[in-house]
Amino acid sequence: MFFSLFGRKKTENKKAPITRQPVKPSPEKSATPAASPQASEDSLDFSAYVPPPPSTPLTVSPAPVPAPQEAETAPAAPPLDVSALISSLAGQADPVPSIDVSPPNDIAPVIEETATLFANGEVEQALAELSNAVREGELGSSALQAWLMLFDLYQHLGMKVEFEALALEFVMEFERSPPAWIETGERPDPALDTGGIAYFALGGKLTDASAPELEKLRNAAATQPALRVDCGKLEGVDGPGSRLFRETLLSLRDAGKEVLLTGEARLIQFLEEACQPGRVETDGALWALLLDVYRILDFKDKFEEAAVNYAVTFEVSPPSWESQPGAEARGSAVLQPVEVADQALILSGELSGAGETLAKQLQDWAVANKMLIIDMSQATRVDLVTAGLMLNVLSKLQEAGTTIQIRGANELIRALFGVTGLSRVARIIPRK
């Protein structure tokens, strides 16, 4: 990365002419006539001395080579600082009362890899890499954290048998009590979990080119009673894409299938930006999809406001509200304040594709309370988009003097917060 600025061996050639020059300038510099005799004497005596000191030490001194290498190590520090914001800070021990907190260089790479894979929804790959690393046992001071993350992966995937088998090994390995399996009552079908067979992620821009993906969604409905559609990775939506997606949702509803929307905040953001009052050039399919999404999520107030805007824009009667059965259970991320005495903002479920809603919740809660406490004990997964948004908002709040505390997050989420740098702006308290 650095330049080979060394090997300037021409210094010997430069010092040879220096011995010739004293003979020429000595007559020119009449101001020092006494120096000429000394020069003659020195030229006889010191001619033997001149070669050894300047030639041999300076030629043999590839010592300047390590000197530039020391210069190389100095510029190497900035890249390390930059990478610390992404990866190395997972081991920062200042704000994080984490388990076996180690120096940044001691964090096993599989910790960051697993956290990133899980955040991206690649659950099976995360499980494969982490379980292999745990079995191999070469995790150093990250061993305990890796085992606890594996427990969380088993819990997320509903793998109770594997969880209990790991618990027995955990006791023998660490001589302490293992985590307890959390019974969630009516647990949703594991097929709906990220990476499950009933899970579908929409990415890129939703256009008429999305027809093949939406057709797969319809075909899956033949064997699945419920389907989950993740919109957290969408990059945009146009009229034809909205029309296709809405037709797919309607066909699933008519077939009696339950649809769980996650990452819906990102979809709503694109739709609301397009569906502005008075903008008659907006395709009506965008308005229709926005109203349907409000129905699915049981956002009645937002629906009625959008319905009025739609009626005013196109000079028609406003659409009527039709409640969706079980809609209250279909939101992916529940943002709700708890009792005032607790002063904590609860984030629960899978947090993916977060947008303005989450940012405003965090900002408003920070203004209303001296300390911003975020309770994530009911959160199951956070994607990179949401983690990045939280880092951006919380960093600004911290710079403004707000004290931030995130408590109850599982080990997978805590590891992600270390990777993204959130652990530097907030004190993260692990789940008890």
Defining traits:
18 helices, globular, alpha/beta, disordered N terminus, single chain, six-stranded mixed sheet, 432 residues
Q: How many strands, which pairing sense, and closed or not: the largest β-sheet? A: 6 strands, mixed
Amino- and carboxy-terminal Cα gap:
46 Å
Helix content: 40-55%
SSE string, helices as H and strands as E: HHHHHHHHHHEHEHEHHHEEHEEHEHE
Strands, total number: 9
Strand content: 5-15%
How confident is the prediction overall: mean pLDDT?
75
Q: How many helical elements?
A: 18
CA radius of gyration is 33 Å
> Which regions are unreliable across 5 or more consecutive residues at pLDDT < 50?
1-47, 54-104, 325-342
Structural category is alpha/beta
Morphology call: globular
Q: In a nutshell, what does this entry contain?
A:
This protein has helices at 11-20, 25-28, 35-49, 51-60, 66-73, 77-84, 109-119, 123-136, 143-156, 160-174, 211-220, 239-254, 264-274, 284-296, 300-314, 356-368, 384-399, 411-420; strands at residues 199-206, 226-237, 258-262, 333-337, 345-351, 371-375, 379-382, 403-409, 427-430.
Question: Could you please describe the fold and organization of this structure?
Answer:
The strands form two sheets. Strands 4, 5, 6, 7, 8 and 9 form a six-stranded mixed β-sheet that branches. This protein has a three-stranded parallel β-sheet with strand order 1-2-3. 49% of the residues lie in helices and 13% in strands. The chain starts with 10 loop residues before the first helix and ends with a strand. Helix 8 runs antiparallel to helix 9 (143-156), helix 14 (284-296) runs antiparallel to helix 15 and helix 16 (356-368) runs parallel beside helix 17 (384-399). The chain has helices spanning 11-20, 25-28, 35-49, 51-60, 66-73, 77-84, 109-119, 123-136, 143-156, 160-174, 211-220, 239-254, 264-274, 284-296, 300-314, 356-368, 384-399, 411-420; strands at residues 199-206, 226-237, 258-262, 333-337, 345-351, 371-375, 379-382, 403-409, 427-430. It has 18 helices and nine strands. The model is unreliable at 1-47, 54-104 and 325-342 (pLDDT under 50).
